[in-house]
């Protein structure tokens, strides 16, 4: 545990009073395999790598009544200690968000001496509890203790809580940003970066992918924005003028996410294939041996089991066969330093994601050398030219001499000639400008890698930038609000490599009709007119397959409308299997382009009004529920049902006044644990059936679709275990503005 960024540092030196938190933390660390590390760090000089006293040592010293050099926040804060010098900083929303990378972080500490810290925006007090009835602050303390035990197994003793509230589950990043106060939380994150000066920032997926927690999205966006803001003295300047901190720019930015084909065994880093070839990905194999003789994958699994409150205590053992163990995969978003070229041995080594920032592969330029490729927009039109800049910064000791920089682009592209610089002094930055021209045949919407190769007397270096080939005129079906907001954010951050993470999908009721707004974008310098043609998927029809547009002004947008009907009601609904791809083709004077879209069919039903309100008594009498019986036998998580006796379900619904009535009968061959009715989270801690509702009235409404399992952990089985009908009276809530 280290210093919390919730308030400016104080210059006074009070004596740390023994507290229950400090005593508990000290006793917790004493049980961990890395407890000796905390004690060793306590004697290091502040400011040196691993220099400040670790939390466990601080807690012990406080309990003994010794004076401590305490430059932390005041009593209102919850984390005490002196800022430390970190190599890696992970930013997550809740305790356990870092759990999928602990084998990597532990191995980096063991092999390269890298000290990692973890920012946890909340204490997870709003989540589920599979271990007991604690909720709110009590649950937050429970989960914080679980996190400290878990990360301690990877040698991590620096955990920073930003003390933001963990409210109810939401997929909304805008709501999370509002509740957390985005700017305040960003300031706290920036403060920790400026205090601890990590070379590498690691975080989660910032996109509204299906099932992605809005808190996770916001935590990732905070990390990405903080990566840029921490080195800018105009951002949160009071931290510099009042608190005595200095602007600091981390070297590399990584996401703990990967899209593509993974692999198993010791070559899993080399054998992985990204879905987007322009991405820089890294893998760290979990089969290497940890200090206690286990594999790091086994250590990570043991750490994950510490999260008993999240139902992880029963996670199975990892395979004993090294060939069946895989990698933790990371995707690079940005780098300010040279790093290994994709496909090289250095890139697939366990420190590939650290190289250039914390480790120096053989033959490369000294640590501290800066090399960054940038583009004003990150985009280029087919047949057009774009400017690319390469900034070279000399290392602190000696600088660089006889520097040559050459740009490389895909086959068929042209780039300007290599450039030479006699020397780049220590701390000096020289910016070289190149011109990159895309061929007229470049595929619109594709991402391409433009790389810079540096040679000097001191060594070589490599860096790259992703450019997006923009279609001259393109059509895009209406994006879901959260996806549109994410795309706007990627443009504001100049991160085109993150654009398109979420496929454009709109929901549509099975057997229903939907009007689809389509946005037509003109990326050229002249007005454009033409036609948009829809090719609906099999089982769907469009009222008109071609619609004219324009003229749309240069760099402007317009809208056309299509009406689509699902004619084949036998098609699958929901996930998986309910997405149906189709295309939109746009013609103009600048040419034609085709984009891929999709519709997701969801089940629907009509609920008639009841003549008399049904009794909420667990009994379904004939004619009591006016709606048709709905088959709920589909298992949303866990193993498939083998028969109706194994697991099956039926539901009925009706409405009266402003109340929606739902009755459900669920059959299972195994009875779940019965919990007390005053346990308000028992539906999360045992098998249950749920009846979420967002609308009222006699309207044709899609049923709630199933939640897609998270990829960060094995799914939990949640089956209802009652063999008698249950009835629910629901007053539909008002839609939240977010």
TrEMBL record:
InterPro entries listed in its UniProt record: A-galactase_NEW3, Carb-bd_dom_fam9, GlcNAc_PI_deacetylase-related, Ig-like_fold, LmbE-like_dom_sf
Keywords associated with the record: Signal, Zinc
Annotated Basic residues bias: 697-721
Gene3D superfamilies in alphabetical order: 2.60.40.1190, Immunoglobulins, LmbE-like
Region (Disordered): 683-738
Annotated Pfam families: CBM9_1 (PF06452), NPCBM_assoc (PF10633), PIG-L (PF02585)
Carbohydrate-binding domain: residues covered: 616-688
Segment forming the signal sequence: 1-42
Residue ranges constituting the Alpha-galactosidase NEW3 domain according to the UniProt record: 382-451
Protein name: Alpha-galactosidase NEW3 domain-containing protein
Taxonomic classification: Bacteria, Bacillati, Actinomycetota, Actinomycetes, Micrococcales
């Amino acid at each position: 545990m280290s210093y919390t960024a919730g308030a400016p540092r104080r210059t006074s030196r009070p004596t740390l009073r023994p507290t229950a938190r400090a005593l508990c933390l000290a006793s917790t660390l004493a049980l961990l395999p890395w407890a000796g590390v905390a004690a060793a760090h306590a004697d290091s000089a502040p400011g040196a790598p691993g220099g400040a006293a670790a939390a466990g040592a601080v807690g012990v010293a406080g309990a003994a009544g010794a004076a401590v050099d305490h430059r932390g926040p005041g009593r209102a804060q919850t984390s005490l200690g002196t800022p430390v010098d970190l190599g890696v900083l992970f930013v997550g929303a809740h305790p356990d968000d870092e759990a999928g990378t602990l084998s990597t972080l532990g191995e980096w500490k063991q092999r390269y001496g890298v000290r990692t810290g973890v920012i946890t925006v909340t204490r997870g007090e709003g989540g589920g509890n599979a271990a007991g009835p604690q909720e709110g602050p009590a649950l937050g303390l429970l989960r914080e203790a679980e996190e400290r035990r878990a990360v301690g197994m990877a040698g991590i003793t620096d955990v920073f809580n930003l003390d933001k509230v963990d409210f109810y589950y939401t997929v909304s990043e805008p709501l999370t940003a509002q509740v957390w106060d985005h700017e305040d939380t960003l300031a706290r994150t920036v403060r920790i970066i400026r205090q601890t000066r990590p070379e590498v920032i690691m975080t989660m997926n910032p996109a509204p992918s299906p099932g992605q927690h809005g808190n996770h999205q916001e935590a990732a966006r905070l990390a990405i924005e903080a990566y840029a803001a921490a080195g800018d003295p105009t951002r949160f300047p009071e931290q510099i003028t009042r608190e005595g901190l200095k602007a600091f720019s981390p070297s590399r930015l990584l996401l703990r996410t990967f899209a593509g084909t993974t692999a198993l065994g010791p070559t899993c880093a080399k054998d992985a294939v990204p879905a987007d070839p322009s991405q820089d990905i890294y893998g760290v194999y979990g089969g290497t041996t940890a200090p206690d003789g286990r594999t790091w994958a086994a250590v990570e699994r043991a750490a994950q089991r510490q999260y008993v409150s999240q139902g992880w205590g029963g996670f199975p053992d990892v395979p004993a066969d090294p060939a069946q163990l895989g990698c933790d995969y990371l995707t690079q978003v940005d780098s300010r330093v040279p790093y290994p070229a994709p496909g090289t041995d250095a890139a697939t080594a366990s420190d590939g994601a650290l190289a250039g920032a914390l480790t120096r592969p053989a033959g490369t330029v000294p640590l501290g050398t800066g090399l960054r490729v940038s583009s004003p927009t990150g985009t280029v039109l087919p047949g057009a030219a774009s400017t690319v800049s390469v900034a070279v910064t000399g290392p602190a000791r000696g600088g660089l001499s006889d520097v040559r920089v050459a740009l490389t682009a895909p086959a068929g592209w042209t780039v300007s000639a290599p450039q030479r610089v006699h020397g780049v002094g220590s701390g000096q930055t020289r910016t070289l400008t190149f011109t990159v021209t895309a061929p007229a045949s470049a595929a619109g919407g594709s991402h391409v890698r433009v790389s810079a190769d540096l040679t000097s007397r001191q060594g070589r270096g490599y860096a790259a930038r992703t450019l997006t080939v923009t279609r001259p005129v393109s059509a895009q079906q209406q994006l879901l609000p959260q996806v549109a907001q994410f795309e706007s954010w990627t443009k504001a951050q100049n991160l085109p490599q993150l654009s398109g993470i979420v496929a454009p999908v709109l929901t549509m009721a099975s057997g229903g009709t939907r009007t689809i707004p389509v946005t037509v974008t003109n990326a050229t310098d002249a007005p454009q007119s033409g036609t948009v043609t829809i090719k609906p998927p099999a089982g769907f029809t469009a009222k008109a397959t071609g619609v004219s547009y324009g003229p749309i002004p240069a760099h402007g947008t317009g809208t056309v409308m299509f009406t689509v009907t699902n004619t084949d009601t036998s098609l699958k609904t929901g996930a998986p299997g309910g997405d149906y791809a189709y295309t939109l083709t746009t013609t103009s004077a600048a040419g034609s382009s085709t984009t891929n879209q999709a519709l997701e069919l969801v089940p629907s039903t009509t609920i008639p009004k009841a003549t008399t309100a049904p009794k909420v008594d667990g009994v379904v009498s004939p004619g009591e529920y006016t709606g048709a019986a709905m088959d709920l036998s589909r298992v949303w998580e866990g193993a498939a049902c083998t028969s109706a006796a194994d697991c099956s379900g039926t539901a009925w619904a009706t409405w009266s006044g402003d109340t929606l009535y739902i009755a459900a009968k669920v059959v299972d061959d195994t009875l779940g644990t019965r919990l007390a009715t005053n346990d308000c989270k028992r539906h999360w801690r045992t098998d249950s059936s749920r009846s979420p509702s967002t609308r009222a009235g006699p309207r044709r409404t899609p049923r709630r679709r199933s939640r897609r399992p998270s990829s960060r952990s094995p799914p939990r089985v949640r089956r209802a275990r009652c063999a008698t009908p249950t009835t629910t009276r629901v007053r539909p809530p008002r839609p939240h503005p977010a």
